[in-house]
Amino acid sequence: xxxxxxxxxxxxxxxxxxxxxxxxxxxxxxxxxxxxxxxxxxxxxxxxxxxxxxxxxxxxxxxxxxxxxxxxxxxxxxxxxxxxxxxxxxxxxxxxxxxxxxxxxxxxxxxxxxxxxxxxxxxxxxxxxxxxxxxxxxxxxxxxxxxxxxxxxxxxxxxxxxxxxxxxxxxxxxxxxxxxxxxxxxxxxxxxxxxxxxxxxxxxxxxxxxxxxxxxxxxxxxxxxxx
Length: 227
What we know:
The chain is mostly helical. It has one domain. Helices cover 66% and strands 0% of the residues. It has nine helices and no strands. The protein has helices spanning 6-26, 31-49, 64-79, 81-87, 92-97, 102-114, 131-146, 152-176, 200-225. Helix 7 (131-146) packs antiparallel against helix 8.
């Protein structure tokens, strides 16, 4: 990872910041959201500097400290009164536009593969089709929310399909990492997510993309039931 070209890390870092900004905009420029997410990113940055996540021999894996807090936070949003109040007021237009960050993420993943930091199966040349979500997001945003040519049911379907694509790559990425339960890519495992700034992928970008889909699906279902 030391020999990795700087521009790859820089582009990924900027993509993470852009993701946070778009999510904050969906919450109507919430300063609280920016403070919370920025603090989380800084905390993980400081932890990563110690090499904490690079020790993959522990059981359970230390990687859980990257992904478990965001998962629990998302669960809390969907199961508490205040959480539901918050997510039901997020802007679905901006949440849809947020998915464009999946394009630069997929490009970065390809560069990481070329530099032997992740396996080929995690790229669009392998089992990862998530770039489709990023490429179609502007289309859904414009024709679904700006021009309203696309029906809410089609937007709902798009979100479900793209959610499935996200789950697919997440599962493959976890099972390709050098943990005790690794199944894939022993010749070139997924080590990038154990290093900064790529730890921000599982602890920030993926949770925000997941949350964006879940929130939009919830809002569309609520509108459909209210008809």
